[in-house]
Write a structure and sequence with these properties.
It comes from Streptomyces pimonensis. This is Transposase (putative) YhgA-like domain-containing protein. By secondary structure, this protein is an alpha/beta fold. Helices cover about 50% and strands about 10% of the residues. The chain is built from 14 helices and seven strands. The strands form two sheets. The protein has a five-stranded mixed sheet. Strands 5-6 form a two-stranded antiparallel ribbon. Helix 1 packs antiparallel against helix 6, helix 9 crosses helix 10 and helix 11 packs parallel to helix 13. It is elongated. The protein starts with a helix and ends in a 10-residue tail after the last helix.
Length: about 300
């Protein structure tokens, strides 16, 4: 079954084809930005009953010529994949008569190191086909933790967060991205909704996904998309208290707010999602847990 995080790692290139030229600079390969880009059918099935589908397939037209970009999202090594990738590229070249390029996006370092090798297909004495994927892994994209930098290239920031989703830097990237999205104009509502959905998909089932849902559930008055309303509902739904408590503690850790053992137990033991949501909102700007626990209209900790 294809996971949602798998989808995000290649769909971001459908949303922003020019991202390919920007990210490959980190791989030491200079592709010109596309003058235009058009989606092609990802169905590479032959007439016989054998179905093969590449994750994303784009025709990229640049001032330096055209090529077909195949983007594959790969989370772990697979001995069967090189043969499939070679088939994809050969079939695409035969079908469109345009040079193909394979980009493999890996959120896992082990998978990235495996995919980055040169695959020789054929007998040892004379390999007839050599497969050389471009591979984008966690070490190939910078950590974008500045809201200004995130605002300059939101798709790149989404990809950075997806590739670093299991690392401590994920929180800083997500906070920067949330602020960048909030700065979008009302005319960008649909685009913001798409970016939010892609980011949630890209985080998969990692702890960073809980932080992202909370960030999106807080102060989303700058747009009223269906996605935003769904995120609010999820953040307040009964039974999410444990996840909200963990996200709150992660946020406090990221902001370097001192949390005593007593405070930690209070947060972890709170079973009211509405109270946790209020504390999370306050934690975005609070400098102490006293500010977070203060009763409405007063100071100090609540009873």
């Amino acid at each position: 079954m294809v996971s949602s995080s798998h989808e995000a790692l290649h769909r971001i290139f459908q949303q922003e084809p020019g991202l390919f030229a920007r990210v490959t600079r980190n791989l030491g390969v200079a592709f010109p930005p596309p003058v235009s880009a058009s989606e092609l059918s990802t169905d590479l099935t032959e007439t016989r009953p054998l179905e093969r589908r590449v994750d994303t397939l784009l025709r990229m037209d640049t001032e330096d010529g055209s090529f077909v970009l195949a983007v594959e999202s790969q989370s772990k090594p697979s001995r069967h994949k090189p043969a499939s990738w070679a088939y994809y590229l050969s079939h695409v070249y035969a079908k469109y008569r345009v040079p193909p390029v394979l980009l493999v996006v890996c959120p896992d370092r082990k998978a990235a190191a495996w995919a980055a090798q040169q695959f020789d297909i054929g007998p040892r004495q004379w390999p007839s086909l050599t497969l050389r994927p471009l591979v984008l892994g966690p070490d190939d994209l910078p950590v974008i933790d500045s809201p200004d930098e995130a605002a300059r290239d939101i798709p790149l920031t989404i990809l950075s967060a997806a590739l670093h989703r299991c690392e401590p830097e994920a929180d800083a990237i997500l906070n920067a991205l949330a602020k960048a999205l909030k700065g979008l104009s009302a005319d960008d509502e649909n685009t913001a909704g798409t970016f939010i959905e892609l980011m949630e998909q890209g985080l998969g089932m990692t702890p960073a996904a809980d932080l992202w849902r909370h960030l999106m559930a807080v102060d989303l008055s700058f747009f009223q998309s269906q996605t935003a309303q769904q995120l609010r509902a999820e953040g307040r739904a009964e039974g999410r208290a444990e996840g909200e408590a963990k996200a709150l503690l992660r946020l406090l850790g990221h902001r370097s707010v001192e949390v005593s053992e007593e405070d930690r137990e209070r947060i972890a033991g709170c079973g009211d999602p509405d109270v946790l949501d209020l504390w999370f909102t306050r934690a975005l700007t609070a400098t102490s847990t006293a500010e977070i626990f203060a009763p409405a209209g007063g100071a100090g900790t609540a009873d």
